[in-house]
Design a protein that fits this description.
Strands 1-2-3-4-5-6-8-7 form an eight-stranded mixed β-sheet, sandwiched between helices. It has a domain of 170 residues: Gcn5-related N-acetyltransferase (GNAT) (Aminopeptidase), CATH 3.40.630.30. By secondary structure, the chain is an alpha+beta fold. It is globular, with a radius of gyration of 18 Å. α1 runs antiparallel to α2.
Length: 253
């Protein structure tokens, strides 16, 4: 099982900061997300009402939904600011090349497919629940990001000209100044290859470059493997208000 530093919230609520700042204008995205969330609920209701009637034909609803979200989301216009300089490639001991790159707005289906193929055990170790896929809200929050405030770093492998997502690391600002919460997750078949360590190491480098002072993560107290992984990265483990959870924290000097 790969280390599961990160959020333990429901996938319908994690990665959900209330207010983002865009170009210093203090843009409130709650209003936009409320609208898009309602659109998502309508789509879900339509799907449920048509369950069993060639449901795959309703895929155009999802595509329409994401197009509408991007039209209303100012960050889709900032791809000129995509941090190409953060793309890197390294080679595993067996010769397989792995690319680490920031998320792109068009990666929604890519990420959804990744989560759909995670085992129940891996999902539960990260989120304390099992689920088939991510909600539309979460996909929007993961792909429509402000690269100056947060980062979603994707690990991918390309074979026969097809790119496959094999891991992801993410940090997002908390309510505390200069503090971010982190998450890392790796596909089951790519465990024990050092990918989580690579993702977290690169993520911490990026966070430091963005003047983040502290990283935190919440880990189940019974998960000795994840706690050991956090310690190996220099995180200090402490108790939380919940005796079943531990807090891992690391200062970025």
């Amino acid at each position: 099982m790969t280390p599961s530093i990160g959020f333990l919230d429901s996938p319908s609520t994690f990665l959900a900061p209330e207010v983002y700042s865009y170009n210093g204008q203090g843009l409130q995205l709650d209003y936009i997300l409320n609208i898009t969330h309602k659109i998502g609920l309508i789509i879900s209701c339509v799907k449920e009402s048509c369950y069993g009637i060639q449901l795959n034909r309703l895929s155009w609803l999802n595509r329409t939904f994401f197009v509408m979200c991007r039209l209303f989301n100012p960050w889709h216009m900032s791809m000129a600011n995509y941090p190409e300089n953060l793309i890197s490639t390294y080679q595993l001991p067996d010769g397989i090349n792995i690319t680490l790159r920031p998320v792109r707005p068009e990666d929604a289906d890519f990420i959804q497919d990744f989560f759909r193929h995670l085992s129940s055990q891996t999902k539960h170790s990260h989120f304390l629940e099992n689920f088939r896929e991510l909600s539309n809200d979460v996909l929007i929050r993961l792909t429509q990001i402000d690269y100056d405030r947060e980062m979603v770093l994707i690990a991918a492998h390309t074979e026969n000209e097809k790119e496959t997502m094999i891991g992801m690391a993410h940090y997002a600002a908390t309510n505390e100044p200069d503090e971010c919460e982190v998450l890392v997750i790796v596909a089951d078949e790519w465990h024990s290859k050092g990918i989580a360590t690579r993702l977290m190491t690169r993520l911490m480098e990026i966070a430091k470059e963005k003047a983040v002072k502290k990283l935190i993560a919440t880990i189940p107290a019974i998960n000795a493997r994840d706690l050991a992984f956090a310690r190996s990265l220099g995180f200090v483990i402490s108790n939380s208000d919940d005796p079943t959870l531990k807090i891992a924290a690391k200062l970025l000097s």
